[in-house]
Amino acid sequence: MARRHCGVAALTAAMLAAPLVAAAPDPIASRIDTYRELGASFKAVNDGLRTDEVQPVLLAQAARHMRTVAQAQYGLFPAGSGPAPGRKTKAKAEIWRQPARFKAAQDAFAAAAAGFQQAVGSGNAETMRGAARKLGETCKGCHDSFRTRTD
């Protein structure tokens, strides 16, 4: 009888653990989702800055999100999440082959995101526009070097 209880306990433990294993996040899907959300924030910023009367509260929300992503980006490219047969990613292998160069691009983005958030806090529309351009340049620079083109 004791063996039967041990077997049931082991089976129950395995069944409870199975969803945890299945629910483990896919690093590529997480990365894609994060950058899509970042793109939506950047679109909101660009749209907001094209108007004559900027909305500082909306821009502050987007700036906060961008800064959060900038801080989280360092964990979005774990080893083993690069290009491989059967794996759909636009991340180039150079990310893992040239980690110092990639980290420098990440650092540039993080600094620009912090600068943009500070610019939004200034309330000056021209300062915000300039900081948004710098932020966009860091995105473009990283995409040019570390992301495959989409044609």
From TrEMBL:
It holds the Pfam family Cytochrom_C_2. One of its GO terms (molecular function) is heme binding. GO terms for biological process: electron transport chain. InterPro entries: Cyt_c/b562, Cyt_c_II, Cyt_c_prime. SUPFAM superfamilies: Cytochromes. Residues 1-23 form the signal peptide. The keyword Iron applies. Binds 1 heme group per subunit. GO terms for cellular component: periplasmic space. Keywords: Electron transport, Heme, Iron, Metal-binding, Signal, Transport. Heme c binds at C139, C142, H143. It comes from the Bacteria. This is Cytochrome c. It comes from Novosphingobium piscinae.
